[in-house]
Amino acid sequence: MEEFTDIFLMLLLVAGALSVLYVRNLFVATMLLGAVSFIMALIFVTLDAVDVAFTEAAVGAGISTVLYLGTLALVGSHEKASARKSVVPLLLSLVVGGALIYATLDDKMPVVGAADTPAQTSKVADRYINKSGDEIGVPNIVTSVLASYRGFDTFGEVVVIFTAGIGVLLILSQMRLRKEEKEDVSDIPTSETPAEKPDQQGSPHDLVPHVVSKLLIPFIMLFAFYVQFHGDFGPGGGFQAGVILAAGFILYSLVFGLHFTQQILSKRVVEYLLVAGVLLYGGVGIVSMINGGTFLDYNVLSADPVAGQHLGILLVELGVGITVTAAMLAIFYGFAGRADGRGEDVNPE
Amino acid sequence: MFFDHFNYWVFVILLMIGLYTVISRSNLVKKMIGLSMFQIAVFLFYITIGKVEGGTAPILLDKPDVVYSNPLPHVLILTAIVVGVATTALGLSLIARIKETFGTIDEEEILEQEDKS
């Protein structure tokens, strides 16, 4: 039964990927990519990676679809057929694929699920699985590895997200230089992508999404906080919580209009939050250095090392959550603001 | 056995589809979609490596002799997914600016414009 599920999902995945490749309408391709991501999340669950599945479902099927739609609203959704026909790309991918398949034949690659592979028998994996319960005292091993053992690594990744958020803000908040392009840019997307509509003030036909999202959004936000603070004990943590919380805000602005969201959480506040999360994370590291440990050594944060670890992980995850929420919102504001500024003629205000 | 390396083969197929999309399609958004697919394939590869047959999710239980799947690939991929969407957003914002500057997001048309000027 398990194998059947596995094969069924894998076939769906490949079929989805192929249709993404061949479909010419980018709007359809984006939705199919979201579906592929979601199927991938299901496969991650069957492979015991619940935390990853969680993230993939929230990020791949949620946020990134919204980002692609935001882009399509700006650039139009039709893909022109390529004039240049060449066999080189196909040949190249076949060669790469053939080489990789060859690498799995004749037991060159360990069997899936074998317990004696180098990855499973390595010292790190052994220590994470067998010692983290005593050293960190957090049941979810993924959280203790993420926030404590590899805290330095995660700090780097938070900075990457921070940088990407800043980068998008910089790129998309610059003034438009070529005004004359404006007209012919704006009539392509409005006729082709319904995705842009919800950015504007919703029409009276949007009654069902209005009511449903009003009911759902409080629970989405509550769930985000649950995921944030329950990440020690079950699947979850700052990354997932940040994405879910941002998804709540994005849903709100898609249905009710961007400027209502910005009244609650203005662009300026989002920018401050973006910085605050990284500073909180780095601050925990600095405090542990002041207390006589190394950077991000939580043992010295409290008299009891395990209590120190708990405190450190809580604060660090909070920093991650704040930065991820702010970065996702900053990126969304960038795209949606760009579309809003252009679509004045469609906007009733 | 046939199913021993099934996950790896699916990974290879997805990777090929992603790579092919990136090289053969001239639309920049389609290229980003191909890149996302390539990324998803690599995620599948890593998570497959961490799987132990008969194992369970790496959340400690109060039972003896539980086999846990390897948590390390999970951590690496979890952060990679979020970083991936942030970098994708950066790429997409560049595409939005390219559209404003050139009036098209088709690679070949952009190259033609570059040649003319």
- How far the N terminus sits from the C terminus of chain B, by CA atoms, comes to 59 Å
List low-pLDDT spans of chain A. 179-200, 343-349
Q: How does the overall form of chain B come out from the CA principal axes?
A: elongated
End-to-end Cα distance of chain A: 57 Å
Roughly what fraction of the amino acids of chain B lie in strands? under 5%
Number of helices of chain B: 4
| Rg of chain B | 20 Å
Q: Could you state the order of secondary-structure elements of chain A as H and E?
A: HHHHHHHHHHHHHH
Taken together, the total number of domains of chain A comes to 2
Q: Count interface residues per chain for the largest interface.
A: A-B, 111 and 84 residues
State the oligomer: heterodimer
Report the CATH architecture of chain B.
Orthogonal Bundle
What share of the residues of chain A does DSSP label as strand, in percent? under 5%
Q: Give the structural class of chain A.
A: mainly alpha
Q: In total, how many beta strands of chain A?
A: 0
Helix content of chain A: over 70%
Coarse morphology of chain A: globular
CATH hierarchy class name of chain B: Mainly Alpha
Percent helix of chain B, as a range, is over 70%
* Number of β-strand runs of chain B: 0
Outline the structure in words.
The complex is a heterodimer of chains A (349) and B (117). Chain A contains 14 helices and no strands. Chain A is mostly helical. Chain A has 2 domains: 79 residues, Four Helix Bundle (Hemerythrin (Met), subunit A); 203 residues, no CATH class. In chain A, helix 3 packs parallel to helix 11, helix 7 packs across helix 14 and helix 10 runs antiparallel to helix 11. Chain B is mainly α. Chain B has one domain: Helix Hairpins, CATH 1.10.287. In chain B, helix 1 runs antiparallel to helix 2. The longest helix of chain B has 32 residues. The chains are: A mainly alpha (349), B mainly alpha (117). Chains A and B meet through helix 1, helix 2, helix 3, helix 4 and helix 6 of A and helix 1, helix 2 and helix 3 of B.
